[in-house]
Amino acid sequence: MRECFEHRAKLVSSAGRALLNNNPRRSRAGHDGLKPDHLIEIDHVTFGYDASRNILNDVSLSFERGKVTSILGASGCGKTTLLRLIGGSIAATGGEVRFDGEAVDAHDSERLFRLRRRLGMLFQFGALFTDLSVFENVAFPLREHTDLPEALIRDIVLMKLNAVGLRGAAPLRISEVSGGMARRIALARAIALDPELIMYDEPFAGLDLISMGVAANLIRTLNDVTGATSLVVSHDVPECMAISDHVILMAAPGRIVAQGTPKELMNSTDPEVRQFVRGEPDGPVKFHYPARPIGEDFGVSKGATA
User: Fold this and answer.
1) Structural domain of residue 275, as residue ranges?
2) In-domain check, residue 13
């Protein structure tokens, strides 16, 4: 039994190396033979869904390889839009997004296919296939992107599920698992191909305090163990400050307010930063979405009173 287990473990390890070695983009290096320090570069990027309003305005950022970077900010400031630009789901209207030194072209399907083999995405609501079992959900990217034998896929899937504490849930249907479990299943699927980049869109939303702590620890642990680069989009300040190497604070309309280490942002004297990290209701960050005067919507003249 022991020899059988050791043999399977070696096969799984070999499979992981094969997935890396069979991807020519995985080992991309600069002219000096070294990989650039920053895996993702956002270079003067502007984006808007229409000409009337920009979601991002001349944003420039870089994300250091092997680090956990959290992008914080109120709803509507462009956090998730950044993830969509990096993944090539949408194209910037100005500027350039680069992944490992190569421009992300949302219109080049072949290049996007290669890029997406190198990244994992944890969607805000999991995006699990409800007609598949837990096991089948995690196996899906392995079957789509590799020619590995089923016996090896089985071992990889069980190891990924074990990493998120859900190996015993492999045969369950998605309808049989809780919201917190579904988020961990989605995480196991996101890391199935051992991606270089893992993007998390609101990984703590809707979780109870225990599940939130478990999810935060998983993000940090997986990043350290795999050497991946992690981008976390969230509203949850305490969790992100606890696990991040670098924190970026955004505000509408698509601008960078501040960035630095968690300690630097927590100790910031900037009124906008202080309001967000402390959750203060009053300050420069306004509650209302920009709108015309309320009197115009209700047909009330300027001199009228409520």
Assistant:
1) 2-26+64-88+108-280
2) yes
Residue 17: band (very low, low, confident or very high) from pLDDT cuts 50, 70, 90: very low
Token look-up 């300027």 returns 302
Spell out a b/e string for 256-287, using b for 16 or more CB atoms within 10 Å of the CB, else e.
Answer: bbbbeebeebeebeeeebbbbbeeeeeeebee
Query: Where residue 163 sits, what CATH number does that domain have?
Result: 3.40.50.300
Q: Answer for the pair 246, 69: CB distance below 8 angstroms, yes or no.
A: yes
Percent of the chain past pLDDT 90, that is, above it, reads 28
Sequence letter at residue 73: G
Take residue 288 and report the two structure tokens written for it.
């209302």
Domain count, the chain: 1
In a domain, 236, yes or no: yes
Q: How far is CA 179 from each of CA 185, 230, 233, rounded to the nearest angstrom?
A: 10, 22, 19
Q: Residues in the chain, how many? A: 306
pTM greater than the 0.90 cutoff: no
DSSP state of 53: B
To the nearest 10 degrees (0 to 180), the angle between helices 134-145 and 150-163 is 130
How many Å apart are CA 246 and CA 269, to the nearest integer?
18
Place of tokens 């399907």: 109
Pairing of strands 102-103, 94-99: antiparallel
Residue of 234, 204, 227, 205 lying closest to 217 (CA atoms): 204
Token pair in block for residue 240: 């992100």
> Does a structural domain hold residue 31?
no
